[in-house]
Specification:
- By secondary structure, this protein is an alpha/beta fold.
- Helix content is 32%, strand content 18%.
């Protein structure tokens, strides 16, 4: 075990009293803005989740610029923020108007998270980016590196991280509430969009959509109905499937409790994949080495209607999404998407009161960091990137299914599967880079 990992595990054990696992030395040096000054925000994507993200930003400062590739969506954003400058290409916005911007929110398809967030941070802008933070493992690591180099305040949009219930249960598990955890199960009711299908026939691009800008860094292809504005999640080039959509939420509690980063291997069973559309269902098995927080551990992910064995719920109603942590002395069952309602079933140990950091609110954590306070829990380098890397690693196994992927976390390499390198480190279209 490396000294670096041993130190991180030691810090993780003290997380709920010192907060240091999420703050980190470099993240704490984020550029400071006076708490009394107004933050100038820009939002990249103002429809869907971008609508609430941009509203959150505007409630904490001034919205000075908005960007959206859909003219209709951008017009609705302009009605909410009439003083904001308007753009359809985030590169143009940052290049032409960057000097007026302090911080950006990124709420666009997964394939463009990293290039947009990376460009903003390299210009010194604080960054809030929706989950999953990146489309690939390499992109996620680059975002951590850039955030550390530029000392900017960052946060990923997995809002359940701020919930007292999630933090309290994670602290209880770390204190031994269910003994030594050896098995974790995480499941979702996604996909709720078509997957495991053939590519739709090309169609004329709607006059209100800037298709080339929508594609961004993704490989070029003709427009077709079924990509914009929502079903892009089911396509390899654009999204991360059901896993990418929900695991940063449903995997969040076990990740926080057990520091589930850097698996040794991942392996998937699926309905079959054409390497264009994600499969209709998948079961993904992660294997983790022993750490100070757990013995050797297996985590299983389920989507597309698949669920853990019913006997693991000990008579409890089986929710359509959630997580289970199975320990030597009991089980934690957290029904729902966000992990905030976990409870101990089948035994458990009374560990008394536990300390954990209370949140002023997920988005407010990021604003506080911009103003010189402690970093958000789900900041890029110390939490969001390790979580995202664990999540999207599962898609390497989906791509190579049924082959087991042996993972070298230090080199970001599948040691036995060179064929997945393009999923680990995708090539971007010209004029997009990290």
């Amino acid at each position: 075990m490396s000294n670096r990992r041993s130190r991180r595990q030691f810090i993780t054990q003290a997380a709920f009293t010192s907060f240091s696992v999420w703050v980190g030395d470099t993240a704490a040096r984020a550029a400071k803005q006076s708490p009394n000054s107004q933050i100038s925000f820009a939002s990249i994507g103002v429809g869907g989740k971008g609508e609430s993200d941009s509203d959150d930003a505007a409630s904490h400062g001034n919205m000075v610029a908005i960007c959206d590739v859909d003219d209709n969506t951008r017009a609705r954003g302009a009605a909410r923020f009439p003083k904001a400058e308007q753009f359809f290409d985030f590169r143009t916005m940052l290049e032409q108007y960057g000097k007026h911007i302090d911080a950006v929110t990124v709420s666009i398809p997964d394939c463009n998270h990293a290039v947009a967030a990376g460009m903003a941070m390299k210009m010194g802008k604080h960054c809030f980016c929706q989950k999953p933070l990146a489309h690939s493992v390499w992109e996620a690591q680059r975002l951590a590196d850039i955030a550390e180099q530029m000392h900017v305040a960052t946060e990923m949009g997995n809002q359940g991280t701020a919930a007292d219930g999630l933090r309290q249960m994670a602290a209880q598990v770390q204190k031994g509430a269910i003994g030594k955890v050896t098995d974790v199960h995480v499941w979702t009711n996604r996909p709720i969009w078509p997957q495991g299908i053939e590519r739709p026939a090309p169609a004329p691009v709607p006059s209100t959509l800037h298709w080339d800008a929508w594609l961004g860094s993704a490989p070029a292809r003709p427009y077709a109905p079924g990509y914009h504005p929502f079903s892009w999640r089911g396509w390899w080039d654009f999204g991360c499937g059901a896993l990418g959509d929900m695991a940063c939420h449903t995997m969040n509690l076990p990740f926080m409790a057990l520091d589930l980063r850097d698996p040794l291997s991942v392996q998937a069973q699926t309905s079959g994949t054409n390497h264009d559309s994600y499969p209709a269902w998948s079961l993904i098995t992660y294997k983790f080495d022993r750490t100070n927080l757990h013995p050797p551990l297996t985590m299983t992910w389920y989507d597309g209607g698949k669920l853990p064995p019913t006997e693991l719920f000990h008579g409890q109603p089986v929710s359509s999404s959630g997580s289970l942590m199975i320990g030597s002395s009991g089980t934690v069952y957290a029904p729902g998407d966000y992990g905030g309602h976990g409870k101990v079933i089948d035994g458990g140990v009374d560990v008394g009161q536990v300390d954990y950091p209370h949140s002023p609110g997920h988005f407010r954590e990021w604003v506080r960091a911009i103003q010189g306070g402690i970093p958000a829990v789900s900041n890029f380098p110390n939490y969001a990137v390790p979580l995202t890397k664990t999540v999207v690693l599962g898609n390497l196994a989906v791509w190579a299914s049924p082959k087991k992927i042996e993972w070298d976390a230090r080199r970001l390499r599948a040691t036995n599967a060179p064929e997945v390198q393009r999923i680990i480190h995708p090539h971007f279209r010209a004029n997009y880079s990290l």
